[in-house]
Amino acid sequence: MSEHQGSGTPEPVEDRTSDQEQVVRTWAHGAGAGAEPGADVEAAATAPAFDADSPVHPTGAPTPDPADSAPVTQPPGVGDAPGEPAAPDAAGAAPVPAPPPAPAPPSDAADAAPPVPPVPAPPAPPAPPVPEATTAHADPVPPPPVHPGAPAAEPAPAAPTADLTQAPAADPAPLGDRPVPAPGPAAVPAPPQDARPPVPGPPPARPAPPRPAPPPRPAPPARPAPQAAPRPEPAPAPVVDPLAHSSVAVASADPGRWGRVDAEGTIYVRTADGERVVGSWQAGAPEEGLAHFARRFDDMLTEVELLATRLAAGGGDPKHTLSSAKSIRDGLDDATVVGDLVGLRARLDELVAEADAAVGAARSARDAQRSAAVARKEALAAEAEVLAAEATQWKQAGDRFKSILDEWRTIRGIDRKTDELLWKRFSKARESFNRRRGSHFADLDRQRAAAKARKEELALEAEKLADSDDWGPTAARFRDLMAEWKAAGRAQKEADDALWQRFRTAQDAFFARRSDTFAERDAEFAANAEAKKALLVEAERIDTSDPAAARAALRTIQERWEEIGKVPRDEIRPLEARLRAVEEKVRDAADRQWQRTDPEAEARVAQFRERVAQFEAQAEKARAAGDTRRAEQAESQAGQWREWLATAEQAVQHR
Length: 655
What we know:
This protein is mainly α. It is built from 14 helices and 3 strands. It has a 3-stranded antiparallel sheet, covered by helices on one side. The longest helix has 50 residues, at 341-390. Keywords: Coiled coil, Host-virus interaction. InterPro entries: DUF349 (IPR007139). Residues 441-468 form a coiled coil.
């Protein structure tokens, strides 16, 4: 259908409460046009050439002014049911469309109609803490005024049946925290642009008061298009920090500030270079078209702020944010929106700079991570090379290689070329270690085979010696075989255990036989010991007064001692000591008798007496001759010989 035709379906009148709910949902999704009421009207706008299939209002029946119409209440089950919260769906569910209302009567009929009694709005509860998923920025831009029909700085004219009540201007709540507006006598002026309301959050649950549905009214006659009151628009995404970033005003709060619409429906936006056409609006009142393009600007601003929020939170890809911001900035010259394009471009310049810095920081972080990963893999490769060259604890070194490989697989972020070079180092070291270990165990197998052959020989010889009765030499040979067994080394465990069992069995058999033989011999030796003890008692009774008889008795006892035989080893020394004592006793008696009967000793005593007598005679003769000196010398010599004589006599007497 042509855009200039005068036939079409008139735009339905939406419920104001449903409009606000859908606006909140639109803000939550950040899409704007896809979730707000009147999407069929917005689809009719084109820039600059509009679609031929767009719905166009008939010439004589413009869209009735919502401010002049009585509020249309949704029936239960379609709109806000009693007892359910009137907050928008945070999950972004599609809004439920209101039933089509009856055609609105003319203004005079509307004035004559009985007004619906206003429903008092409950007090707004305090805003709860805002979840991170619903807060786009830390410091949001103040929401636009809810009251339709006037700019933010001017109060709208009172409409007893269609005006919406705003929150108090002293503490404006974000759109998501405001209760469903109730009719009131007058609107409150909007808060100033620089006000900083609390962070928006989901509204508390509260029941919505039921509203009676008004009776149907006849359609009003055609009249000139009235100035439509702007609908409550979704608040833009909050700005991260208004002091650090450029502040961009919400266009839907005052579309006329940023653009205009002429009588033919052509929409203009004001830019730094002047005005330019952004589209044409033929589906309703021109002011609605201007508001539509302002909402599109708000959607674009919301998208920009969402990009900034994700960038600040670190939850998105900086490259994607950078490309998206550049794409939006490059399209501003041809954007079909009405709003603060200069401020938005400045905001995009800041976002592009921040995203570019974030991309650089991410690149630096990746480079640092890559350097750390390369350093770690180089350290692992170096450790592997040391193990490959020096390790001799094969079990521990093999386990370490496994742990190095497991850690190697967890290290990421290295370019392919460097990673392949490092992997070649590690793989080469591991292969070298495996070769060394294989060579070691091959040598060990050869050694075990040689040890097995040698131990088989030793076991065979031990089995041959097991039946020997030559106890001493055989026992000594078994000791030598044990030393050779230990020097042969270890064979394979099962073979080594089997050979050891053979060797040990032969050895145990020999020493068991020897032990039995020694036990019998020990019993015989014990009897011999008792016999020798009895013989010693007899020997100790020998009378030594007659040395010759004592020697004869001792000789007989010694012969009997030898005939008795061996005694236990621990009895040998005590018994031999007692026998030696008897032998010494008899020998001492014979020595004493010989000393008493020695003639040489008697002759020596007689000689000493004779010499004493000679010196005494010489002394007497010299004294008689008056030779005193010679007399004293002779007396002295005689005294010396007397002492010798006394000693000799004493020795003879004590023999």
